[in-house]
């Protein structure tokens, strides 16, 4: 897959192309359906398949203090797109100045001229251009004017489980819901990693550099790899999770992951820590993750955060967390989906 980081990087004469546009945060099942259609149409028209996406996410630019949270960082988005067999992706730098382009300016300068777009594959709710004035009707009119077709892809719908009261009485029956980034974020906020994985078609992940922490885990016999505060990916609900750590060499290690501020200790800020379960004891001195960029994948939430009365109770719980993680991960594939 060709990766262009700006319009100026597009290979001259690359077209004709079939193009789709969007933020594609999560590259979830709904997005995957769009990409499948994109590939099918491109094959029929003997054209290249191209995804146009944006970085940073527009919400970070327009609502920096109140954006809903980005599910995945750019590199993980590109890695996910790589698996779709799309020919090329244009990562358009997003800014307030770029957002002032009219729908026609965007279509002509970013799709028609550099990519020779012959078809635009989109969802019905797509908006583009200044103030989101480029709705579906406007895009179809631009297609007629500038010589490209517009194909609308239907939403992918999933089933949202019923929500029980504490006594087990259902509060709401299971309902159908559009597969969306909003739904995935709600799963992550609830710690429902299985639900999120079902919508993503993969485990949710974070990516970041391993930095030094307070070394409390090491002192208790559970050394952890602490992700930098600059790590990308949506931080799920506070708690302890079974998951995987993928090191800089691509090796996957079974891991117990702690998310949050440990309530047993005062003055601890919210953080993501990963304890590798099967550390290589024979060369433990060489197993140094500090400074590495690693990926942490979340498989299942074990429990929420609890304040313990004393270190002994905390250590006993951590031993139980590790054993439960080991059991869960023994049933999971070691390779990334």
Topology:
Blueprint: E1 2-4, E2 17-21, H1 29-44, E3 48-55, H2 58-62, H3 74-82, E4 88-93, H4 103-115, E5 117-123, H5 136-146, E6 149-153, E7 157-160, E8 163-164, E9 170-172, E10 175-178, H6 181-189, H7 193-200, E11 204-211, H8 216-219, E12 225-227, E13 239-246, E14 252-260, E15 271-276, E16 293-303, H9 311-329
Parallel strand pairs: 1-4, 2-3, 2-5, 3-4, 5-6
Antiparallel strand pairs: 7-10, 8-9, 11-12, 11-16, 12-15, 13-14, 13-16, 14-15
What is the CA–CA distance across the termini? 18 Å
- The strand count comes to 16
Fraction of residues in helix: 25-40%
Principal-axis shape: elongated
Q: Main beta sheet: strand number and arrangement?
A: 6 strands, parallel
Q: Segments where pLDDT lies below 50 for 5+ residues?
A: none
Radius of gyration: 23 Å
Compressed to H and E, one letter per element, the order equals: EEHEHHEHEHEEEEEHHEHEEEEEH
Mean pLDDT reading? 89
Main sheet: strand order: 1-4-3-2-5-6
Number of helices: 9
Strand content: 25-35%
Helix/strand structural class: alpha/beta
Structure commentary:
The chain is of the alpha/beta class and 337 residues long. The chain is built from nine helices and 16 strands. A six-stranded parallel beta sheet has the order 1-4-3-2-5-6. Strands 11-12-15-14-13-16 form a six-stranded antiparallel barrel. The two termini are 18 Å apart.
Which terms would index this structure?
337 residues, six-stranded antiparallel β-barrel, 16 strands, 9 helices, single chain, six-stranded parallel beta sheet, alpha/beta
């Amino acid at each position: 897959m060709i990766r262009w980081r700006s319009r100026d990087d597009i290979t001259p004469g690359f077209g004709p192309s079939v193009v789709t546009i969007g933020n594609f945060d999560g590259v979830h099942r709904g997005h995957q359906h769009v990409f499948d259609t994109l590939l099918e149409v491109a094959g029929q028209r003997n054209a290249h398949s191209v995804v146009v996406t944006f970085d940073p996410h527009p919400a970070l630019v327009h609502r920096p203090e109140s954006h809903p949270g980005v599910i995945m960082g750019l590199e993980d988005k590109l890695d996910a797109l790589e698996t779709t067999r799309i020919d090329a992706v244009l990562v358009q730098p997003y800014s307030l100045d770029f957002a002032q382009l009219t729908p026609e300016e965007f279509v002509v300068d970013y799709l028609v001229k550099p990519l020779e777009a012959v078809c635009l594959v989109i969802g019905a709710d797509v908006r583009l251009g200044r103030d989101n004035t480029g709705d579906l009707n406007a895009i179809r009119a631009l297609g007629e004017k500038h010589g490209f077709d517009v194909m609308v892809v239907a939403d992918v719908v999933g089933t949202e489980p019923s929500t029980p009261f504490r006594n087990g009485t259902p509060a709401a029956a299971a309902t159908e819901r559009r597969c969306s980034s909003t739904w995935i974020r709600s799963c992550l906020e609830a710690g429902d990693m299985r639900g999120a994985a079902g919508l993503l078609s993969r485990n949710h992940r974070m990516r970041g550099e391993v930095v030094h922490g307070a070394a409390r885990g090491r002192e208790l016999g559970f050394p952890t790899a602490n992700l930098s505060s600059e790590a990308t990916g949506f931080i799920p609900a506070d708690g302890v999770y079974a998951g995987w750590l993928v090191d800089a060499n691509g090796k996957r290690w079974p891991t117990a992951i702690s998310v949050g501020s440990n309530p047993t200790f005062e003055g601890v800020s919210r953080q993501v820590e990963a304890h590798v379960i099967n550390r290589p004891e024979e060369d433990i001195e060489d197993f140094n993750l500090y400074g590495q960029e690693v990926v942490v994948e979340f498989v299942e939430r074990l429990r929420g955060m609890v304040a313990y009365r004393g270190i002994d109770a905390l250590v006993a719980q951590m031993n139980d967390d590790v054993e439960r993680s080991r059991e869960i991960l023994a049933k999971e594939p070691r390779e990334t989906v």
